[in-house]
Write a structure and sequence with these properties.
The chain is built from 11 helices and no strands. The protein has 277 residues and is mainly alpha-helical. Helix 1 runs parallel beside helix 6, helix 3 crosses helix 4 and helix 10 packs antiparallel against helix 11. The model has no long low-confidence stretch (mean pLDDT 95).
Amino acid sequence: MIPAVVYAIPAFVLLVVVEVLSYRFLPDDDERGYELRDTATSMSMGAGSQVIGLPWKAVTVIAYAAVFTVAPWHLSPASGWTWVLLFFTEDLAYYAFHRAHHRVRVLWASHVVHHSSLHYNLSTALRQSWTPMTTLPFWLPLALVGIPPWMILLEQSVSLIYQFFLHTERVDKLWRPVEWIFNTPSHHRVHHGSNRVYLDRNYGGILIVWDRLFGTFEPERERAVYGLTKNIDTYNPLRVAFHEYAAAWRDVRAARRWRDRAGYLFGPPGWSPGAEG
């Protein structure tokens, strides 16, 4: 099955062009807009993620199908309640995946790619990891409760398409009830901010209610400073894709104790011996 997000790529590219033109004809000094090399890197990362992601999707389908076959029951796609269950469980799985990929360094090494841009625009949404292998375990429980694999894949694509539109400074805060329930550009700008108050906040996919429930929500109060706490200062796609793996490996090799080696891999980003997580 070809993920639905692949069919959306032409629309993504067209909308990036539209947003670029909006900055050209309606500039805003408070917004960072686009920078050619940064945008080219984001596009390259997105293209690479699709090339790698398509064959990996076959592995994912096999894994989901294997778990689905041993599920105690199989839910019917003809039932509306199955789709309701899918919506909420997939979004919760995304929250768990996203939070883990910010709090465990070996997972962060994959996800850091998406946060490496100093700009925040629709092209940033396309700056995706080239190591999708870390995502698989988080959605397997959906197959175990009897949701057909094709439905899981479809809802994952719906979530990714929704999240594309969150990556913009051109949209201010929305109607308060929408901001309270759904993830919005305002909430996601917080997530991409390297400001201390914004670190490790707003992990939601479509819904923001998980962050409110689990204590990771932060409203947009001050202007977000985009990028990493230690920026990598490169537009080289290979370095963007693998720089944190290389840094983690250097730390592991330099560590003297196995406990410290484990900390460098499985502790939070920035962990060091004696430091608090």
